[in-house]
Amino acid sequence: MATSQGTWGYRDRFGDAFARTYFRRFGPGVASSVGLGTYLGAPTREVDAGYRASITSALSAGINHVDTAINYRCQRSERVVGESLSDSDVDREAVVVASKGGFLPFDGSRPEDPAAYVREHFLDTGLLDPEELAAGSHAIAPAFIEAMLDRSLSNLGVETIDCYYVHNPETQLQVRSRDAVYDQLEATFERLERRRAAGDIGMYGVATWEAFRVPRGHGSYLSLPEVVSRAERAAEAAGADDVGLGAIQLPFNVAMADAFTVSAHAHPDDGEDVSALTYAQAAGLDVVASATLAQGELTSSIPPEIDAELRGDTAAQRAINFARSAPGVTTALVGTSSPDHVPENVAAGTFEPLGARAFDGVFE
């Protein structure tokens, strides 16, 4: 697993090559504020090869935060991450590895009949009760998440996943009440607390698409304070000395800045509604930004008035540095299936991000 000594040692090997705030505290050590995402791409050998080369190159160049999920590219992304970790000359203890469970994964390729596959491999086997399924493809029931965690550990070939996220729990709001979703999260958190005690995960988190950045009353809304409260109850029930909920993941970029602009979560000190980023800072949660480049759209379409405030030689670097500048963001993930893009993305970290006042000024 990633350790304090391993990650700080990784940071030190680069000396002054990066800007002062490039490495930031995460878990027991530090992580690069540019991370590698593995969502995009078809489930093919060609894309596997691209990711393998990208991850190996990134680890050598200064990115030590790699993010994946069991459903990404039909489990192929997890497996490629595992192969890359094994082949890399960078020690495992220097790398933060994150994965997610929630969406039902296919195995290697998309089946001709996805519904039949789900029925055969998840329902008929008893791994899932039909009532636990949402949108035909999603579940966060404790036994299911625990089974997916075991599968992810195997795919990655690691003893410990440093941060394991419950993936898009707001999907469950399509079939059950908000309170029922909180109840299910609490039960799953308790299982994850026990797996943390066993050393299978370093911490756990919640990865979302809409839940934490939409206003109250939105159909996908989940309350961060309530999620934290449920994690505290789960930790107590599991007999943990501390709470294992350590991070949230959500989209954040120039075009999707809701996590900074939408105030929908009661501040832990005074109860005033604040943004997800502000709440996370106050609650001591790390924030990992996804969709940093909006799947490539921001490499050429940053609004000029914002672009002018950002540092970087290319539009992609400036978009990355926008996400890295947001108060509370630890790492901005960049999907990099092509090794040709790795040097450019890594070099974004040689520029200082905007200061807090300058970042606020972008929204004035």
Overview of the molecule:
The protein has helices spanning 4-12, 45-61, 76-87, 114-123, 142-156, 178-197, 224-238, 258-261, 276-283, 304-307, 315-325, 342-347, 356-362; strands spanning 23-26, 29-32, 34-37, 65-67, 96-101, 161-167, 201-207, 245-251, 265-266, 273-274, 286-290, 329-335. With 364 residues, it is an alpha/beta fold. The chain has a single domain, classed as Alpha-Beta Barrel (TIM Barrel), CATH 3.20.20.100. The strands form 3 sheets. An 8-stranded parallel β-barrel has the order 3-4-5-6-7-8-11-12, surrounded by 6 helices. It has a two-stranded antiparallel ribbon with strand order 1-2. Helix 2 packs across helix 3 and helix 5 crosses helix 6. The longest helix is centred in the middle third of the chain and has 20 residues, at 178-197. It is globular. The termini are far apart. Residues 35-211 form the NADP-dependent oxidoreductase domain. Pfam families: Aldo_ket_red. One of its GO terms (cellular component) is cytosol. GO terms for molecular function: oxidoreductase activity.
